Amino acid sequence: MPYVEMPDLQKLLALLILKSAPQDLPYxxxxxxxxxxxxxxxxxxxxxxxxxxxxxxxGILLGLLVQYVFTYSVLLALDKRARFxxxxxxxxxxxxxxxxxSWPLFALLANETTGDSxxxxxxxxxxxxxxxxxxxxxxxxxxxxxxxxxxxLALSFSxxxxxxxxxxxxxPVEAAA
Length: 177
Fold this sequence. Notes:
- It is a single chain.
- By secondary structure, the chain is mostly helical.
- The chain has one domain.
- Helix content is 74%, strand content 0%.
- The chain is built from 6 helices and no strands.
- The N and C termini lie far apart (41 Å).
- The relative contact order is 0.14.
- The model has no long low-confidence stretch (mean pLDDT 87).
């Protein structure tokens, strides 16, 4: 099992409340590998309740690949490639934390015995979590790219929409009969 040191976890948690930045994380490809493993495991735990079992692994790997390619491409285009390791560590780390935060919501939403009013409330809470994730990733891009928050938000929304669009394109959700 991957081992993430407590100071690194504290820095990732601080990212959630916008109190740290990607440069606060260690410059360590090993850390990225550890985070990638935890990302895959957290994705399996969350998606097992809502996604076709045949699509779980492909969906998780797609999410990992999109975040990798997007982050690398943006940093390369803006001549900040040297910041990739810490930026991608931050992106992966907060993705894991948001996976874990949304896990109980996915479980409730997927449960057929959950009442409609509770599902509506949980859907709103899920929307809030997704919005917060977009904001946190914009915070990461803002620091990594030394840009205004508005531009960083545009990048973060782009990453979100590319991920959702590719997921829907490659793994369409079948309508209930």
